[in-house]
Each structure stands twice: as structure tokens, then as C-alpha cells.
Amino acid sequence: MSEQRDRRHDADASDDDDTAVSRPSGKRSSRRARGASSQSDTGALATIERAGGDSGSAKVAKADRKAARGSANPFKRLVKFLREVIAELRKVIWPNRKQMVTYTSVVLVFVIVLVAYIYGMDLAFIKGVDWLFG
């Protein structure tokens, strides 16, 4: 009976190994694929422009870059940026009062320790220079 379990376990392990290799790993692989295609498109446009390809494709590439950059109105871009900032700030998990006191005290203690260390090193160098040069 235990031999059957071992055989099943070995078969399951080999199945898992096969599926792990053939199965996509998740979001990163799709991002990589998208990024690679957009990079190859951008590279192709740059190659056409550098090679002095026909002016029609260069004009199209320039129009595509301008459209990707956004509208030319700086006020519209500023308003869009501010809206995106507000949207991101809404996603932030803000600390409560206890966490804020803890974080503040940790930072203050760290700053005090570093100031004391730098003051000590400065004092030691001053004493050393005074001893060396009289």
C-alpha cells in the first residue's frame, strides 16, 4: 500500500514539475511581453528615423510621440497631474496617532544618536590636529 502511495506521489511530483515549467508565472510575464513589444516598436521607429526612412513614416512617428506626450496645454496637464496625485493619496494607508508618535520618537532618537556620534568624531579630530600641529 505504501508503494502505491509513493508511486502516486512521484507521479504527482513529475506532473507538478511539468506544469510549473509550462504554466506562465503571472503578471510579470505579461508585463515583460507588453514592454518588449512596445520597446521593439519604439526601436523600429527610431531605426526608421535614423536611417532616413520615407518622410511619411517619420511624420507619423512624430505625430505619435506628440499624441503620447499629451495635450499641449500645460494647464490641462497640470490639472491631470493634480487629479492623479489626489487619487494616489487616497490609496495611502495613513498611520494612526500611536504609530505616528512611535515613528517620530524613533526618528528623533536616531537623529540624536547620529548628532552625538558626529560631534564626538569632530571633537576627536580637533584634539588630534591640536596634538599633531601643537
Principal-axes shape call: elongated
State the separation between the terminal residues, measured CA to CA. 90 Å
Overall number of strands: 0
Percent helix range: over 70%
Count of DSSP H/I helices: 5
Round the mean pLDDT to the nearest integer and report it.
74
Class based on secondary structure composition and strand pairing: mainly alpha
Short description:
This protein is mainly α and 134 residues long. It contains five helices and no strands.
What does this structure look like?
This protein is an all-alpha fold. It has 5 helices and no strands. The protein has helices spanning 2-22, 27-51, 55-69, 74-91, 97-133. The longest helix has 37 residues, at 97-133. The N and C termini lie far apart (90 Å).
